[in-house]
Amino acid sequence: MSNRNALAQPQPLPRVLFFGRRCRLSALPLRAVLAAGFPVAGIVTPAPRHRRDRSLPIRALALPPIVARVGEPTLEQLASAYRLPVLEASTLRHPQVLEALADLEPDILVVSCFPWRIPEELVALASLGGLNVHPSALPAYRGPDPLFWVYRHGHLRTGVTVHQITPELDAGPILGQARFDVPLGLPGDHLEWQAAAIGARLLVRALECVASGRADTWPQESERASYFSWPRTRDLEITPDWVAWRAVHFLSGVIPLGYRPVYASPGEPRVTVRRLLRWCRDAAEALARSQPCTVGLPVRDGVLLVEVEP
User: Fold this and answer.
1) Nearest to 189 by CA among 244, 241, 147
2) By the 8 A CB rule, do 84 and 62 touch?
3) Is the distance from CB of 159 to CB of 136 less than 8 angstroms?
């Protein structure tokens, strides 16, 4: 065989070790990676708090039966269909975890919607390092739940970024980014799906570039960076001085993401909102449109008609 023919041989695709959890922002990117033909060495998920055991820092999960999929596949269904090992970790900072993941011989790590920081010694297991799919237009909204903060701050535009994993959280060089509009009042699960679908495409493109040695990156502008942690109790509050459009956007967004916002008016009992029904111009319209189990919540320029928790 000539040297020219030997050089023309395609290189094997890198083995991916995938870090995610039971959510759309993990399942859709993983599905895209598998559909693109990348070999996946295994899936790492975080153990629920009640199952975290320092004496058993990582364990293999039993795969569910293979069943016909209807709609979007879950992480478990993908693992079952492709016969991928699923490892549930109580921590990433234990020698047994490092040893178990080293045995999978990954070439590159991929992280999408995994809630913990990836230690440097774990990234070092992979010769090509690691990539993270982050649902914001970095460097804005670094941190664990940027979709919540987009709604909290009343933003009508956001993005998705694929970047290299570095010791500083969400601060690595960028391989791909897309920005898009968030329509007023878009349900949060719709935004999650859009971010997951766009992130999946960006991820596959980034993996293909890394595999071929053509990956171009650019640094994040640190002076424009912002970081927000998990929401606290006060971050779930809306008050009577909010304008209606911001309240509608916030409630429509975060309730489908699993949050329960609270309406807090001075001197009145706090009300936990289960569902937003509509915005009304005034109390008379709210009264005319009210139904059993609905409550009108005054804001600066109208009344929110909502269902509340008992």
Assistant:
1) 147
2) no
3) yes
Domain identity same for 220 and 275 = no
Give domain status of residue 2, yes or no.
no
23: left (phi over 0), alpha (psi -120 to 50) or beta: beta
* Lowest-confidence pick of 7-11, 89-93, 249-253: 7-11
CA distance 172 to 295: 46
Query: What gap in Å lies between CA 215 and CA 205, rounded to an integer?
Result: 9
Provide the whole-model pTM: 0.90
- Strands 130-134 and 157-164, bridge-based pairing: antiparallel
How many domains is the chain partitioned into structurally?
2
Give me the residue label for tokens 């913990």: 116
* Same domain, yes or no: 149 and 19: yes
Residue 142 DSSP one-character state: B
pLDDT in tens, 135-185: 999 999 999 999 999 999 999 999 999 999 999 999 999 999 999 999 999
Final residue before a domain boundary, out of 224, 241, 267: 224
Residues facing 298 on adjacent strands = 303
